[in-house]
Amino acid sequence: MSRSAPTVGTAAPARLSLARARRIALAAQGFDRPRPARPPHAGQIAALVHRLGLLQLDSVNVFSRSHYMPVFSRLGPYDRARLDRIAGHGTGRIDRRLVEYWAHEASLIPVDYHHLLRWRMADVQSEAWGSIARVARDQPDLVAATRELVAAQGPIRARDTGAVRLPPRPGHMWNWHEGKVALEYLFFTGQVAAARRVNFERLYDLTERVLPAEALARPTPNREDAQRELVRIAARALGVATTSACRVPTPRRGWPSWRPPVSWSR
């Protein structure tokens, strides 16, 4: 008598030794190959970010901005101006291949991943943190006026809104003024984008003036398909994970309810 076929979804998960899991993870992260013999060009840097899924941004600048280090650790010494150029940082020419969004924390992502996060942009009340979620509800005129300002004068800095920054207060690390909060709401919802950063200060402009036309023209996937694709990207970048690592957490108030599992940023 033939053995019955196994039921789909009931197979026991594969088990790996710790040493093998480490090797798989390091290979997925790009540490399984020698560094290029020559300094990498912009295309190689963009391909690396595509493989990793993102480069996390951080304002800390004790040694080096955090997004510069993963490129060095995998590709060796490189001209940071090339990363700046494809990310829109600095004052030089832009060759837009990366764009900024709250993909994990503030991060640089490949332009062709931007549409996968439109579900977060559309669900700002659940996905964004307190002040960002509240500003459109409590101050809709401020948000509308700020968008008009960006449309007329962008790219602009937060200071260009004319809002006054309050004195530092205990427990308020960022200390954003109302103009900055309105810009961040527009940024979170995808109405504006980071046109560039100069001295790490974000300049905002209308998204249609920042993203390439082909990125804007991509159809918007439904939430489930987008999250599935983000998990696939993360799984490829991580190489190995437990089943619980790819679980969608239960939403909680005051902070984004879901963040795609992401590759190590260092």
Q: State Rg.
A: 21 Å
Distance between the termini: 55 Å
Low-confidence stretches: 1-8, 249-266
Q: List the helices and strands in order.
A: HHEHHEEHHHHHEEHH
The order of strands across the largest sheet is 1-3-2
The average pLDDT score comes to: 86
- Number of beta strands: 5
User: Approximately how much beta-strand content do the residues carry?
Assistant: 5-15%
Q: Which descriptor suits the 3D outline? A: globular
Number of helices: 11
Describe the structure.
The protein has 266 residues and is of the alpha+beta class. It has eleven helices and five strands; from the N terminus they run ααβααββαααααββαα. The strands form two sheets. The protein has a three-stranded antiparallel beta sheet with strand order 1-3-2. Strands 4-5 form a two-stranded antiparallel ribbon. α7 (130-138) crosses α8 and α8 crosses α9 (178-188). The longest helix is centred in the last third of the chain and has 16 residues, at 223-238. The protein is globular, with a radius of gyration of 21 Å. Residues 1-8 and 249-266 have low confidence and may be disordered.
Features:
38% helix, two-stranded antiparallel ribbon, globular, alpha+beta, 3-stranded antiparallel sheet, 266 residues, disordered C terminus, disordered N terminus
Task: List strands and helices in order, with pairings.
Blueprint: H1 18-28, H2 42-52, E1 55-56, H3 69-75, H4 80-87, E2 98-102, E3 106-110, H5 118-122, H6 124-127, H7 130-138, H8 140-153, H9 178-188, E4 192-198, E5 201-206, H10 213-216, H11 223-238
Antiparallel strand pairs: 1-3, 2-3, 4-5
